[in-house]
């Protein structure tokens, strides 16, 4: 059968949406043979091996900063995800894939071609802020400014949209993965312990914050002692993780401020009056809504389903292209993305 599919090809996760359901949500990672670079495992199975492989295997994250960094691995990863989600039940599906705002035509084309190689037809691309706005039911066809902030794993997509298109935007290379790296550095410096990516993410989810918590909390974590090389259990507190996350959180604030400084004053006035919509996995870090509101001096609201609002909006745009008919934004097909 034929069907419509929305794909959020993210640095951390790939999400497939079809009908009215999330049909697949797995890490955007592959385990490859170190010598041949042939992918062996993808998704959840590959992610469990990150930091645990021998010298014969290498973990590859083919999507970096929201765009394809390793085309060959990305193409095979998408093909694997499509087959896992749908098997042979679909014939030449119509697919829309999200990309960060402001990326080049080449990057649009790479994303579309990687999806097309999985057997899709009529592959279209849409920038994440536009997709998020549609997914949240925001009417941006009128001459009024709306600000969407999508804090993903690799990038923070910031866009002011009005009259059906993007007025100003930036895809800042500071996002949720920077919080993970900041935690790894902090644990190494302050505790003389080495932890992996998965441990850092667990710490971030459990006690991470970008504003001080009213009550101090602590958890036990496991790592490798830098001096002895032996495994060790140690305690981490929410206050020290807050200190570790201050810098990347401030960088996100500054990136948003830079976009506002490039925005027309009347649009900024609209944003101050109507508020800012926050989406993406980074929106779920404790205190992000409060931090941005205090720094920017505007009301900030977290989307009802921040992890999936982009992909839901993408599939809505694919099914209802008339939503964009009154603006200057249009979905882009591979044929449109001619490399000049």
Summarize this, please?
By secondary structure, the chain is an alpha+beta fold. It is built from ten helices and 19 strands.
Walk me through what this model shows.
It is a single chain. The chain is an alpha+beta fold and 340 residues long. It has 3 domains: 154 residues, ATPase, nucleotide binding domain (Nucleotidyltransferase, domain 5), CATH 3.30.420; 97 residues, ATPase, nucleotide binding domain (Nucleotidyltransferase, domain 5, 2-Layer Sandwich); 70 residues, Actin, Chain A, domain 4. Helix content is 36%, strand content 28%. It contains 10 helices and 19 strands. The protein has a 6-stranded mixed β-sheet, with helices on both faces. Strands 13-12-11-17-18 form a 5-stranded mixed β-sheet, sandwiched between helices. Strands 5-4-6 form a 3-stranded antiparallel β-sheet.
Blueprint (SSEs and pairs):
Blueprint: E1 4-9, E2 13-18, E3 21-27, E4 30-33, E5 39-42, H1 43-47, E6 57-60, E7 63-64, E8 67-68, H2 71-86, E9 94-99, H3 105-116, E10 121-127, H4 128-135, E11 146-151, E12 156-162, E13 165-172, H5 176-191, E14 193-194, H6 197-207, E15 218-225, E16 231-237, H7 238-261, H8 265-274, E17 276-279, H9 288-296, E18 300-302, H10 309-319, E19 332-333
Parallel strand pairs: 1-9, 9-10, 11-17, 17-18
Antiparallel strand pairs: 1-2, 2-3, 4-5, 4-6, 7-8, 10-19, 11-12, 12-13, 14-15, 15-16
Helix pairs in contact: 2-3, 4-10, 5-6, 5-7, 7-9
């Amino acid at each position: 059968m034929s069907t419509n599919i929305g794909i959020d090809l993210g640095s951390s996760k790939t999400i497939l949406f079809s009908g009215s359901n999330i049909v697949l949500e797995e890490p955007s990672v592959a385990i490859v043979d170190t010598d041949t670079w042939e992918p062996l495992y993808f998704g959840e199975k590959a992610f469990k091996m990150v930091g645990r492989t021998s010298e014969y295997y290498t973990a590859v994250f083919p999507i970096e900063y929201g765009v394809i960094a390793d085309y060959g691995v990305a193409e095979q990863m998408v093909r694997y995800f499509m087959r896992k989600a749908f098997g042979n039940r679909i014939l030449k599906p119509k697919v829309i894939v999200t990309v960060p705002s402001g990326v080049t035509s080449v990057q649009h084309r790479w994303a579309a071609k990687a999806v097309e190689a999985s057997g899709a037809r009529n592959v279209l691309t849409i920038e994440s802020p536009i997709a998020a706005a549609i997914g949240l039911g925001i009417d941006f066809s009128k001459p009024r400014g709306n600000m969407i902030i999508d804090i993903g794993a690799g990038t923070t997509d910031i866009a002011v949209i009005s009259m059906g298109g993007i007025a100003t935007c930036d895809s800042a290379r500071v996002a949720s993965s920077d919080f993970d790296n900041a935690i790894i550095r902090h644990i190494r410096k302050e505790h003389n312990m080495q932890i992996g990516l998965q441990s850092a993410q667990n710490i971030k989810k459990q006690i991470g914050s970008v504003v001080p918590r009213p009550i101090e909390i602590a958890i036990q974590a496991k790592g490798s002692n830098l001096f002895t090389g032996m495994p060790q259990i140690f305690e981490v507190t929410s206050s020290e993780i807050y200190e570790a996350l201050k810098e990347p959180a401030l960088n996100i604030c500054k990136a948003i401020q830079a976009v506002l400084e490039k925005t027309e004053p009347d649009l900024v006035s609209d944003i101050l009056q109507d508020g800012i919509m926050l989406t993406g996995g980074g929106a779920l870090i404790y205190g992000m809504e409060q931090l941005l509101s205090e720094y920017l001096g505007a009301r900030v609201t977290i989307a009802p389903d921040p992890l999936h609002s982009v992909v839901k909006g993408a599939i809505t745009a694919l099914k209802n292209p008339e939503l964009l008919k009154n603006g200057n934004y249009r979905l882009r097909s591979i044929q449109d993305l001619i490399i000049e």
